[in-house]
Write a structure and sequence with these properties.
Blueprint: E1 13-17, H1 26-37, E2 41-48, E3 61-66, H2 72-88, E4 94-98, H3 103-113, E5 116-121, H4 129-132, H5 135-148, E6 154-157, H6 160-170, E7 175-176, E8 215-218, H7 227-233, E9 241-244, H8 250-259, E10 266-270, H9 274-280, E11 286-289, H10 296-299, H11 304-312, E12 316-319, H12 322-330, E13 334-337, H13 342-354, H14 356-369, H15 375-390
Parallel strand pairs: 1-2, 1-4, 2-3, 4-5, 5-6, 6-7, 8-9, 8-11, 9-10, 11-12, 12-13
């Protein structure tokens, strides 16, 4: 009897690179999970922090890279060097850089190994407030962008305005894969976890507090998110604000709360793992998605939390910027405001509290919108993109 050995084709290998904590990156968890479920061998790299929680079990491989430096250009330099050498010894059919802060090692390794390279642009990196307002930092990152992005033929971003801007600046035609959440069965409203120590890296435990009417901000507590005007605005709003997240403006936000004597009204709750945050969001009265108009990245943005609030079935306050305006034309789920002054924010939040007709209309539209703005629908764009590139 003659046996003929059949050659089994290995799964196409994709490595994605980020420079943040993998546990809290809902967007990358969704993307990697979808790719793994659709026939790809997927790995993702992120940074290892001293306070990082153990990685949650996923259907893709995860790698945390430790660094001596924790922030600033020294961190990015060290992380990119370590990432370069790690990638150099990995097998991959495609390397995908998530935002500009990991694009250099992906570019050079893809050139050396002859594999496909992809750019996943969550934002216009150089136009963020923390970059564009610092000339020396802006000069460095803009040079990196000008050098690399035109050399990344394949890419995708989160909304059409940003895709159009990349085409205008660098002549690249990127696809749009919106950052929408997974559609799940409607959740019953649960009591909100309580975190009185306000530790950015802690995970609050469930409390026995009675449910209350509160506004919710969830996501990165970073520069450009209008905390300088949102916090004082809360003096004139007849409901508390709960903030879930951490970031480069966390301590300044804490100081703003103290300066405005709002410690009992504006509560910093720290970070929550994505699964736990999903139990908090539906219990809020309404969400908040604000960005200062001080950089093109903010003006053209389409934030993750915009869709998270929709999926949770709660209205929100958002900016009257192009992407949000376009979303609201399809489904009016948000009250849009033209500026981020304390007076404008306070008036809009109070309108949500007092105008029952408006509130119920927005809430009803959230229920309809989440049948369209969900990952089960959107992931089809992602899979089609990767199939076109690597099969």
């Amino acid at each position: 009897m003659i046996y003929i050995a059949a050659k089994i084709n290995p799964l196409p290998r994709i490595i994605l690179t980020v420079a943040n904590d993998l546990n809290f990156d809902q967007r990358m968890i969704r993307i990697c999970s979808s790719l793994a479920q659709n026939g790809y061998d997927v790995a993702i790299t992120g940074r290892k922090l001293s306070a990082s929680l153990p990685l949650s079990t996923q259907n893709f491989r995860q790698k945390k890279i430790p660094c001596f430096f924790k922030k600033g250009m020294m961190f990015y330099t060290e992380y990119n060097i370590r990432l370069f050498f790690w990638l150099l010894f990995q097998k991959a059919d495609a390397l995908c850089a998530i935002d500009l802060d990991t694009i250099l090692p992906v570019y050079f390794v893809s050139k050396l190994k002859g594999c496909k390279r992809i750019y996943d642009a969550h934002e216009l990196f150089c136009e963020m407030k923390e970059i564009v307002t610092r000339p020396s930092r802006y000069k460095i990152w803009k040079w990196i962008e000008r050098f690399t992005v035109p050399r990344f033929k394949y890419g995708y971003t989160v909304c059409k305005p940003i895709a159009m801007e990349f085409e205008k600046m660098y002549g690249v035609k990127y696809e749009v894969v919106r950052n929408v959440p997974v559609k799940e069965e409607p959740r019953t409203k649960k009591q909100e976890p309580n975190n009185k120590d306000q530790n950015v890296n802690s995970v609050p435990e469930t409390s026995n507090l009675q449910p209350e009417t509160f506004f919710l901000y969830q996501g990165a507590v970073n520069e450009g998110r209008s905390f300088e005007t949102l916090i004082p605005a809360m003096k004139d709003v007849n409901a508390p604000l709960h903030i879930y997240g951490g970031g480069n403006f966390y301590h300044q936000t804490k100081e703003l709360i103290q300066q405005n004597h709002l410690q009992e009204k504006v509560l910093l709750k720290g970070k929550l793992a994505p699964g736990e945050l999903k139990t908090v969001t539906p219990s809020a009265y309404a969400g908040i998605t604000l960005f200062e108009n001080n950089g093109l990245s903010n003006y053209l943005s389409l934030a993750n939390r915009f869709f998270d609030y929709i999926m949770a079935g709660i209205p929100q306050l958002a900016m009257d910027y192009p992407a949000y305006r376009e979303m609201n034309k399809q489904f009016e789920t948000a009250l849009l405001i033209p500026d981020t002054s304390p007076k404008t924010i306070a008036h809009a939040l109070n309108l949500l509290l007092t105008d029952v007709v408006l509130y119920e209309r927005l809430k009803h539209n959230c229920i309809k919108a989440r049948e369209v703005f969900n990952w089960q629908e959107e992931e089809q764009q992602l899979i089609a993109f990767y199939k076109h590139i690597i099969g």
